[in-house]
Amino acid sequence: MTVTHHVRVHRSEENLAREDQLAWKIAEVAADPVAVDPGVVDMIINRVIDNAAVAAASLTRGPVTAARAQALDHPVSRNGHGSTVFGEPNETLSSPEWAAWANGVAVRELDYHDTFLAAEYSHPGDNIPPIVAVAQHVGADGAALVRGIATGYEIQMDLVRAISLHKHKIDHVAHLGPSAAAGIGTLLGLDEATIYQAVSQALHTTTATRQSRKGEISTWKAHAPAFAGKMAVESVDRAMRGQTSPSPIYEGEDGVIAWMLDGPDASYDVPLPAPGEPKRAILDSYTKEHSAEYQAQAWIDLARKLHGEHPELADPERVASIVLHTSHHTHYVIGSGANDPQKYDPAASRETLDHSIPYIFAVALQDGGWHHVDSYLPARAARADTVALWQKITTAEDAEWTRRYHSEDPDEKAFGGRVEITLADGSTITDEIAVADAHPLGARPFARADYIAKFRLLAEPVLAPEEIAKFLGLAERLPELTPAEVQELNIAARPGVLASVPAPKGLF
């Protein structure tokens, strides 16, 4: 059972009581000591493994190296154990907010972990690094960690169901700051009043524009969710010290809704669990088989299928045009509707290419699959036959696929579309796909074995076999872990891996 909270802008003279504010309603959910369902526990374990997998694969990449160096330049806070940093030995610790920062960048860098798309879009696994970092620092056990992660997923996904940010060019991590703060509040067993202040502060400090995902996409794309996690940790710290936050942060006449979202006449209906209702939102999210924007997942699978059925499509001389009929979001964010020339530029950054469905479909059609490194190599993007095919691919918004994208019925909600290929001889090939193969309703839904296989694939080049076994052994017992075992929930790179990349120097 859920309770729908009607949220609207209030003038200052209306004196909206804090108990009627969305931030307080979020705090009530976070403070509810309800047990976590077994199915949710299993999925949390899957996503902890998934996060570690994609973090392992990114350990030597520039943004991750820089964020890790920043974290290691900050010593452990005085009032706690400290938190581990992905790649480093367990004995190398940082302050929890900086560990959340470094680990958050590592998780997001390859854009390869879980997703949830509704009114807004999100990567709810971004909640895990700050919650784990705080758990390690304060000496929480695995059961508390599981409860905190369940809350983080629940709050972010409920906000994503109801409130669109991208429509107003606000970056989607504005839903992550409040959710991570709420998850930390659950982890620590804080009261509603403290969590309320932390949620309000986290939202206030994590609203930014979507320029980070427009045009030539910068390395900040990986840092943005890590920044939200870091701000969540700091917001909880301030709230625990008795400090207050802008209020009402959502509903105020100078608040987020009135000036950043739908304006002073706006209203939203936000679904949240009723008191005593388990937090099950994580079960509605889905992970990625391929390292690319989620809306590209199904298209990669369709291209892989077409590669096997029609190998001639790999030759640009045989193809006149390819049109991907898809949802509004896919067309305008990662398709030709974005009007970003960079999406067709062979010299574009990896961050830009993973937001270019014309590029992704071209490579997957030629290669019959997708690789998290090889498919983005500059030499791969610059290959003449790929460039020729790539330039022939466009997207078009289709009303029915847009409707299905926004459907609340999980059986018809879709993130794919229909492809129309016109060959040079005038003949046509058409096909369609609704959801990715790895989606719960897809051809091959991801299960525990798939998460472990993904972890091994990405971790084996950089982690020793015993490190892989140790991490999996801990993760699969997550709700039973002692505080000492939670502090070992880390992935340490093989000797020499991190030394192979320079640690950039900065201010700290």
From TrEMBL:
Keyword Lyase: yes
Transmembrane segments: none
One Gene Ontology molecular-function label: 2-methylcitrate dehydratase activity
Catalytic activity: (2S,3S)-2-methylcitrate = 2-methyl-cis-aconitate + H2O
Keyword presence, Lyase: yes
Domain MmgE/PrpD N-terminal, chain residue ranges per copy: 21-267
Origin superkingdom: Bacteria
InterPro entries documented for this protein: MmgE/PrpD_sf, MmgE/PrpD_sf_1, MmgE/PrpD_sf_2, MmgE_PrpD, MmgE_PrpD_C, MmgE_PrpD_N
Known EC number: 4.2.1.79
UniProt KW keywords: Lyase
Ranges of residues in domain MmgE/PrpD C-terminal: 290-469
Protein family membership: Belongs to the PrpD family.
Complex and partners: Monomer.
Protein name: 2-methylcitrate dehydratase
Source organism of the structure: Microbacterium lacticum
Lineage: Bacteria, Bacillati, Actinomycetota, Actinomycetes, Micrococcales
